[in-house]
Amino acid sequence: MAYVQKLFDKNFLEYASYVVKDRAIPHLDDGLKPVQRRIIHSLIEKDDGKFHKVANIIGHTMQYHPHGDSSIGGALVTLANKDLLIDKQGNFGNNFTGDPASAARYIECRLTPFAKEIFYNPELTQYEDSYDGRRKEPITFPCKIPLAIIQGVEGIAVGMSTKILPHNLLEVLEAEKKCLRGEDFQLFPDFPTGGLIDVTNYDDGLGKVLVRAKLDVSDPKKITITEIPFGSTTESLMDSIENAAKKNKIKIGAINDFTTDEVEIEIKLPRGVHSNDVVDALYAFTDCEMSISVNLLLINEARPVIMNLTQVVQYHANKLVSILRAELENEKRNLQDKLHARTLEQIFIEERIYKLIEEQKSRVGVITAVQEGFIPFMSKIKREITEDDIERLLKIPIRRISLYDINKVKKEMKEIKDRIKEINFHLDNIVDYAVSFIDSILSKKENDFERQSKIVSFNKTDVREAAVRNLKLRYDSDSGYLGFGVTTGNIIADVSEYDRVLIIKKDTHYFVTNVQEKNFIGKGILYVGLADTETMEKVIFNILYKNEQNCVYLKRCRIEKFILEKEYDHLIPEGCSFLKLSIKEDISVSVDFKQKKLLRIAEDLYEVDSYLVKGVKAKGVRLSPKEFSSAKFIKSKRS
User: Fold this and answer.
1) Residue 537 burial class via C-beta count within 10 angstroms: exposed 0-12, middle 13-18, buried 19 and up
2) H-helix or E-strand spanning residue 398
3) What are the CA-CA distances from residue 184 to residues 174, 209, 470 (Å)?
4) In what order do the strands lie in the sheet with 254-257?
5) Which end of the chain, N or C, is surrounded by fewer C-beta atoms within 10 Å?
6) CA–CA–CA angle 390, 393, 396 (5° rounding)
7) Is 145 helix (H, G, I), strand (E, B) or coil?
8) ∠ CA(333), CA(337), CA(338), 5° rounding?
9) Among all residues, which ones are annotated catalytic?
10) Which pLDDT score, from 0 to 100, does residue 61 have?
């Protein structure tokens, strides 16, 4: 058994680690999940400027991805619909309506120039063996922008999940510029579906946001939804509205979807109902308002790490500098190699060093002759001449020597030297160069990525406040039942199914419960009433009770705080007996005292509002030290 448990633990940990790192969670470096990275890699390999059938790209990606064509096709369509890395041709579905894409054999795609600009650099990309060892695939791409927070991503792994909201490309790039300059920045989500966002509880990529549909209520008899909340579709939104209408939470006449390239859901209202009366109910009971919790989880250094937006942008700002420096150094090295080759070629041809090999009869003699021929010109040559250099010179065809253009070569060499100077300047001012790189992207994309979602401040709609109170709450004292399904007894109030009621029993225990269709609470209940904020603030409970010495007490209190379904202790002190309860205003207490010798006053009146309203746990005030025979509430006799 111990062996089986050990085997299970080992295999489960390996599986969990694989799902986290190699399937579900994107990498911090390039913001891609493995399947997305393999799709981009396949598109780079197949790139010829033309569109490719998606089915072909799926087949090519299967050389790297061991989990089948279905997961590849779905990931490719999702990636293409971000409209950032993949150009698409054909029906890729509709983000607004949720309509699926056409079959892979009918639609086409290719890599965007932007994707190649931020991803493609084989010299800087690290590769590893594919799953079958036949090919090489990138570990991560040297990505120059924080793609994960631009595109947004969701993923569920073993014991953890990530949900990163999309942000506006231009705003993220501006934030990266500020980070490079050491300035503060702030980022908020921007959704392709538009809508309204409340970012009060959005904590730098963590926390949550409230999202709302954009409603046009200019027509009092019609509501038009022109933008939908992120995470919903027109179909799911209409379903939620229809379900709310069936449950009598909102009143609508008809609902129609006219969405094409833009959202247009038309809600017609019935007679007597106006658009302003329905707005709060739409936000409360339908997907027109949603709360989205976020968790910025990424793979960093082979481990899942929860980060914030500031950390991600700072990481990529530093990474951009290192990538650009490496690109410049690679280019400089290549230019220096080219300049060295052109210098040798120039001297070899102009000084006719090639004539020195005419008398040589061996390979060693030829190489030695060429090396000796360069000795007088070593001041012009910046590095050692290798055998490879000589072999390349010896392969120059006679035609090229005869057509050699000295001025053309000098111009080319000058251009190379000028570019090396420029590269050295950029390397000395690498941060400014990184900022100029970002500016070049901004200038190309400034008209394509306007903010879609509007940031506003609004409070989450309380369903209890928005609910229509169209149910009659009754209490039948004879049967002891309370509820909106009870048909006999007294009507307590008009309620909705989201309301709560306060119940005080005859022993002065009390509790708060949700409104139900039918609920047995017992006979002889002292009080039943709504437990909403407005009612609880207004209602004052006036309670008469007596102690063991038969003296009468008055207690005044409000019940404003409670835990749902918790039964609380007596409203009167232990050992005392309850007499009367009233919530009326402008009342007095009439007390009859026991007849005793020398007792002149047999009855007295006490004005209730002359006593303080205290807490629920406070004791009452003794009205008189004399024993009493009866006490009751009466209407105040003050003029």
Assistant:
1) exposed
2) helix 398-402
3) 11, 22, 52
4) 214-216, 222-227, 265-268, 254-257
5) C
6) 155
7) coil
8) 115
9) 106
10) 95
Rounded CA separation 497/244 (Å): 13
What are the domain boundaries of the chain?
32-142, 214-287, 463-635
Write out the two tokens for 260.
């094409």
CATH code 3.90.1300.10 for 463-635: no
Q: How far apart are CA 175 and CA 183, in angstroms?
A: 9
Per-residue pLDDT reduced to its tens digit, 557-585: 999 888 888 999 889 998 899 999 999 98
Q: CATH number of the domain at 214-287, out of 3.40.50.620, 3.30.1360.40, 3.40.50.300, 3.30.230.10?
A: 3.30.1360.40
Give the torsion through C-alpha atoms of 407, 408, 413, 419, to 10 deg. Answer: 120
Q: Burial level of 538, CB count in 10 A (0-12/13-18/19+)?
A: exposed
Give the C-alpha separation, 415 to 253, whole Å.
74
Report, as ranges of residue numbers, the positions in the chain whose pLDDT lies below 70: 1-22, 461-467, 595-602, 638-639
Please state at what angle helix 406-428 crosses helix 430-445, rounded to 10 degrees: 100
Question: Which residue type sits at 601?
Answer: I
DSSP 497: T
Phi, psi of 44 (to 5 degrees): -65, -45
| Contact call for residues 75 and 35 (beta carbons, < 8 A) | yes
In degrees and rounded to multiples of 5, residue 475 shows phi and psi of -125, 125
User: Residue 2: how many CB atoms within 10 A of its CB?
Assistant: 6
- Under CATH, what is the fold of the domain 32-142? Topoisomerase II; domain 5 (3.90.199)
> What pLDDT, on a 0 to 100 scale, did the predictor assign at position 598?
53
Please give the structure tokens belonging to residue 582.
Answer: 């009233």
Q: Which residue has the tokens 């050990």?
A: 6
Kindly report whether the global pTM for this prediction surpasses the value 0.85: no
